[in-house]
Structures are given as structure tokens and as C-alpha cells.
Design goal:
The structure holds 2 protein chains of 2 kinds. Chain A is about 30% helix and about 25% strand. By secondary structure, chain A is an alpha/beta fold. In chain A, α3 packs across α4, α3 packs parallel to α5 and α4 packs across α5. Chain B has a domain of about 70 residues. In chain B, the strands form 2 sheets. Chain B has an 8-stranded mixed β-sheet, sandwiched between helices. Chain B is globular. The chains are: A alpha/beta, B alpha/beta. The interface between A and B is large, with 48 and 47 residues.
């Protein structure tokens, strides 16, 4: 079996809110991603998916668990080896309006990584590299001397992608990279990301809340609810055969662009609100909204069980 | 025929800026009948929000101005109404819910007072009756514990709950028409599903017409009776939901439908994309505004603007492909 490029084991990230309040943003999350594959991480706002993405890159320190990138524990590395590994792991952020420094030109933004890791010999080589990167993401060399405000949202996201690619990474975390964009622009960016993946053999952790887009780009999908993964399967399997009540509700909540189908189907609407992640109960986090809940669900956390064919579910009813 | 509540004819709205005149809305016509849902679809910047905000007189003028056109509400042209005249219908007969429930409620006022404000202004009932009415409204929109919630501030509620409160304020005086500007865009899918369900339920009960602005065609399919597709300040195609989804005629509509990732599509094939980006509204081109991005554009498209072609009683589109001299191109999903 191929070596996993990234392996996350029992990741925990708690935020201390006050002396006796702890917010468990990420609670025991484990997953692996193989080289050249995409893992989609979905869930609603506040479920901890962004925290996972950041903890994987050590933008947050973690409370417990391990993040192994090519077998190295990211959170145990010394400063120097961490810096060399950041070259291989990059991130694309959600908001192309705030993730680019408004006072720097595109060439300064894209070239910063080149400078830090000293990836060029001469000035000329640097300029060429930047132009190459801009071409790769569908911009041209005239764009190099412009400032971020001169670009549309889609173009800015392309600049963000060029910045991430500048250091030849193997692994990219896309944190809601398309959710701030218009539909027609979203498909442009998704196609670009998929082309780049094929060309450069990239590995993605694709974080998003839009299940239909995630389904499209991912090989495997993990569904998060309140800090834990409740279901994990290949993307075709997850949509064809969702098992966790939350996944079912989530899939049913996606409006389908087909009026006859949409108006005739019964919407499986989950009642109530997401429970507070602060000082949560020991039991299943979906307990208070689940129609199938049993007493045992409130007492202990259901383990992530393999139900066959790499399909994992955390539910006592299965 | 059902009662016509709103009819907008050839509305043009511009904003004067230092860079020049931004022609945000360039000749928009549509109507809304009693109790129906009209969805206005389009990308950001296409003028859909400006259109409804102009109807509600929520655009500050200057810099904005209505260049021409009429807004007929229940037989009266309200396009020339002053703020004072508008106050008699705004909030009472037409009301609006906004995209961002986090910022559209006043953070320093208890929600009970915010709901009562409109009721007391527009109806002749005393404070105590208004209080009761507000509690009932909160119950109707599904806020738990409505009596106690009245004295709470907006920040204690989640996004979905705040949008419910916004809906209760908008419906407080039983409006004839409700404008909903991307009401669920800021919400999660499961919450979105709850809010859409609530809107449909209230529409059935109160027979309110809804003008729904959105860019999500899935939401349109679920909610709309009729659809208007906007591009660069114009309605390029309009018709019943079935017309638009099952026999679309305009290449932009094709593009919108095709760029959606459908749940049953496999990863291997690329998503269809509309190349390029929308036109600059300061200096719009002489021809069709979509011509530069359109795969089927012809010589005439760049020279002259297409006129509206009526396809059947409800369905119309503005595209040169519908001209009898144009080559026949039909759209099937997955073929484009």
C-alpha cells in the first residue's frame, strides 16, 4: 500500500474560554490522505473544519494528537526543519479580499515565498518564475505589477493559488477556497485546481460547506459535526449510501436545480440548532437533534466504525 | 387572472461616481402577481439588488438616480414617491429581508421592540396589543420561548434564528409583497432548508407575493413560480420555473445551469465554465453584453443589442439566436 502523505491521528484542539469553560473545537479527529488525492472536509460553520486545516499546517498549536507529514510529526519539529517543511505544505484561504496584502504588488506577494526559501539565483530568474506561476493560474505577466484591488474576486483567488504554488508544494489546504466567489467563477477555480492537481500531482485537503462542489473535486469525503468526524467514505459511496443521520440531513438539505424534483420531494429537515461546543456532553454530539437517538447516545461517544469498504460511521444505530 | 401587485417597466438606475456613470440597471421590466414567488437570478454586480432596493427606495439618491421607467404598485406609479410617501407603504405593504442577519438587526435594541416598532407605526393598536402580536409572530416563525425572547438582544441568537426574527419583522403588518435579498446565502445548508420551508409555509398562509433574489439555482428550483435571469443590468430571460429549467433559451442561462456540479456527476469530467468575467457597467458595449463570453456569438451580437423575443405566453428571452435568420442551436444538459 502506498505511504500516506498526511496522517492525522487523534487530533485535539481545545480553546479555553474562561477558567471553567473549554471549547472543544476539534475532538479526536483522525484521517489520512494519500499522495495525489483529495480529501473533502465538510460541515457547517463552527464545526471545526477550518481549525483542522490550520492545525495540520501548525498555524495553531494542538492539545493532543499527531500530524504526520511524510512520517514527520509537524508539531514536534524544531524551527529549522519546520521551515523547510512549510515549503511542501501551503494554504489557500477563503477570502481573496483579505488574504492578500493590499499594499504589495502581485509580484511581491507571489515572490515572497521564493525569497524566503531562496528558490532563485538571479533577479531575472525570479521574474521568470513569477511569470510562469501567473501563466499557470491563468493570469498574464502584465498582472505582475498590479495591486490586489485591481482584480476581481476570481482573479484574486488565482493570485492566492499562484502564491501557494510558488514554493512547489506537494500538499495544499484549500480552506473554503471557492465559497466567496460567484457560481460561474467557482467552476473556473475548481477546474483550475483540478488541472493543477493532475499536472503537478498535488494533494489537497479541501475544506468547504458546499457538498455538491466537494463531491465534485474529492476522492474521499469526511463529514464533521461539532468537532468530530461523524462519517467518512469515498465520495461516490457517501452520496450513494449515507449512513449517519446528520449526513443524510445534510445531503437532503442541498437544493437541487430541478423544479419538478425539488417541489415533489420530502425535505428531511433537522430540527433545532447546533448544540454549544462549550463543555459539551460526553455522548454523541448530534444527540439532541437526532430522531433515532437512544439513551445510550447521550452516555458515551459512538466510535468511528468501519462498515466495510473504507466507509466509517460514528453512530450507535449502525 | 390573478391580481397584479407590482409592475416594473423599463427601469434604469445609474450611480454617478468619480469614474463615471455606472449603469447598474439598464432597462428592466417585470411583474409580480398576488401570492406568487418570482426569483431574480444573477451573479454579484448584475443589478438584482439595486433593482429591488430602488423599488423599496432604499438607494440613496444621489449618488443613485432613476433615469427612466415606472414602478407600478397596485395601480399607482411609486417611482416618484418622496421618502414621506414611501413610509406609508414601506414596512406595511412591502417589506424586505436582507442577506446578512448578523448586521440587519439593531444590536442595541431588544428584539421585541424591533418587532413592535413597525406594528405601532403602521397600525392603530396600543402597545399591549402590539406586544401580544409580536409574541405570536415569534411563535409563528419558530422562535423557542417567544415571551422570554422578546426581551433578548440580537447577539444571543444564531444566524438562522436572527433570520427568523427578520422574517417576523417583515411580516408584522401582513405585507402584500416581500422582497428577500439572498435570505439564506449567509446560512448553512441545513439552516437554509429550515428558512426556505418557513418562507413557503408563510407564503401559503398569508398569500404574500415573494420576490426572491438569489444566485443559487437550487433555491430557485425549490421556491420559484417564475424566474427572471439578470445579466449586466438587464433581464436576459424570464419565464416560469419550468421554462427556465427545462427549455432555457439564452446562452447565459445555459451557462448558469451547466456550471452547476450536479450530485450525480463524476469527478472525471470537467465542470463547464463561462469564460471571462462580466462587463464594465461604466462603459457598456453597444451590442449584447454577454457577447464576449458567449460561445455562439455572431457578428450582429457585438454590433446591436438583441430585442426581446416572446417564446410563449410566459417565456421570453433577449438573444439574437432566437432571430429567424440565426442558426438553430438547442441546449441539452451535458452537451454544451
Amino acid at each position: 500500500m502506498a505511504e500516506h502523505l498526511l496522517e492525522v491521528i487523534n487530533l485535539k484542539k481545545y480553546f479555553k474560554i474562561s477558567r471553567n469553560q473549554i471549547l472543544k473545537a476539534v475532538d479526536n479527529v483522525s484521517f489520512t490522505i494519500d499522495k495525489g488525492k483529495t480529501l473533502g472536509l465538510v460541515g457547517e460553520s463552527g464545526c471545526g473544519k477550518t481549525t483542522v486545516g490550520r492545525a495540520v499546517l501548525k498555524l495553531y498549536d494542538i492539545d493532543d494528537g499527531e500530524v504526520l507529514f511524510k512520517g514527520n510529526n509537524i508539531h514536534k519539529l524544531d524551527k529549522k526543519s519546520y521551515r523547510s517543511i512549510t515549503k511542501e505544505m501551503q494554504m489557500i484561504f477563503q477570502d481573496p479580499y483579505s488574504s492578500l496584502n493590499p499594499r504589495k504588488t502581485v509580484s511581491a506577494i507571489v515572490g515572497e515565498g521564493l525569497d524566503i526559501h531562496k528558490l532563485y539565483e538571479t533577479k531575472k530568474e525570479r521574474t521568470e518564475k513569477i511569470q510562469d506561476l501567473l501563466n499557470k493560474v491563468g493570469l498574464n505577466k502584465e498582472h505582475a505589477n498590479r495591486f490586489p484591488h485591481e482584480f476581481s474576486g476570481g482573479q484574486r483567488q488565482r493570485v492566492g493559488i499562484a502564491r501557494a504554488l510558488s514554493v512547489n508544494p506537494e500538499f495544499i489546504v484549500c480552506d473554503e477556497a471557492i465559497s466567496a466567489l460567484d457560481v460561474s467563477i467557482q467552476s473556473q477555480i475548481i477546474n483550475l485546481l483540478m488541472d493543477l492537481q493532475k499536472e503537478l500531482n498535488l494533494t489537497y485537503l479541501f475544506i468547504a460547506h458546499d457538498l455538491s462542489m466537494v463531491k465534485y473535486i474529492s476522492d474521499d469525503i469526511a463529514v464533521m459535526y461539532l468537532g468530530s468526524i461523524v462519517e467518512k467514505a469515498s465520495s461516490t459511496e457517501l452520496f450513494a449510501n449515507p449512513l449517519h443521520p446528520y449526513t443524510k440531513a445534510l445531503i437532503s438539505a442541498i437544493p437541487v436545480p430541478d423544479p419538478d424534483y425539488e417541489k415533489s420531494r420530502v425535505h428531511n429537515i433537522i430540527k433545532g440548532e447546533v448544540a454549544s461546543p462549550i463543555n459539551s456532553n460526553p455522548g454523541c454530539k448530534f444527540y439532541n437533534r437526532c430522531k433515532y437517538s437512544k439513551p445510550v447516545c447521550n452516555e458515551s461517544t459512538p466510535p468511528l466504525k468501519n462498515v466495510g469498504g473504507k466507509h466509517f460511521v460514528s453512530c450507535f444505530n449502525i | 387572472m390573478s391580481e397584479r401587485i407590482l409592475e416594473v417597466k423599463d427601469l434604469r438606475v445609474s450611480f454617478d461616481t468619480y469614474a463615471g456613470e455606472v449603469q447598474a440597471v439598464r432597462g428592466v421590466s417585470f411583474y409580480v402577481d398576488k401570492g406568487e414567488t418570482l426569483a431574480i437570478v444573477g451573479e454579484s454586480g448584475c443589478g438584482k439588488s439595486v433593482t429591488v432596493q430602488t423599488i423599496m427606495k432604499l438607494i440613496s439618491m444621489p449618488p443613485g438616480r432613476i433615469k427612466s421607467g415606472s414602478i407600478n404598485y397596485c395601480g399607482k406609479d411609486i417611482s416618484g414617491y418622496t421618502d414621506k410617501m414611501m413610509e406609508t407603504i414601506r414596512g406595511k405593504e412591502m417589506s424586505m429581508i436582507f442577506q446578512d442577519p448578523m448586521t440587519s438587526l439593531n444590536p442595541t435594541m431588544r428584539i421585541g421592540r424591533q418587532i413592535k416598532e413597525g406594528i405601532l407605526k403602521h397600525t392603530r393598536i396600543n402597545s399591549k396589543e402590539a406586544e401580544e402580536k409580536a409574541i405570536n409572530l415569534l411563535r409563528d416563525v419558530g422562535i423557542p420561548d417567544p415571551d422570554k425572547s422578546m426581551i433578548r438582544y440580537p447577539h444571543v441568537f444564531s444566524g438562522g434564528m436572527r433570520q427568523r426574527i427578520m422574517i417576523s419583522i417583515a411580516l408584522a403588518c401582513n405585507p402584500k409583497i416581500l422582497f428577500a435579498d439572498e435570505p439564506t446565502t449567509a446560512l448553512d445548508v441545513t439552516t437554509q432548508s429550515q428558512i426556505l420551508e418557513l418562507m413557503n409555509e408563510l407564503k401559503e398562509r398569508l398569500n404574500t407575493a415573494i420576490v426572491l433574489i438569489t444566485h443559487d439555482l437550487g433555491v430557485v428550483a425549490r421556491m420559484a413560480d417564475r424566474v427572471a435571469v439578470m445579466y449586466a443590468g438587464k433581464i436576459v430571460e424570464s419565464g416560469t420555473a419550468n421554462d427556465i429549467f427545462y427549455s432555457p433559451k439564452h446562452p447565459y442561462t445555459w451557462g448558469l445551469l451547466e456550471s452547476l456540479p450536479s450530485i450525480d456527476r463524476e469527478k472525471s469530467n470537467r465542470l463547464f465554465m463561462i469564460p471571462g468575467s462580466p462587463i464594465n457597467l461604466i462603459d457598456p458595449p453597444a451590442g449584447c453584453s454577454f457577447a464576449d463570453r458567449c460561445k455562439y456569438s455572431m457578428y450582429v451580437c457585438k454590433k446591436q443589442e438583441p430585442t426581446e423575443t416572446q417564446i410563449n405566453g410566459t417565456h421570453s428571452a433577449s438573444c439574437w439566436l432566437l432571430d429567424e435568420r440565426a442558426p438553430e442551436i438547442s441546449f441539452k444538459r451535458g452537451v454544451i
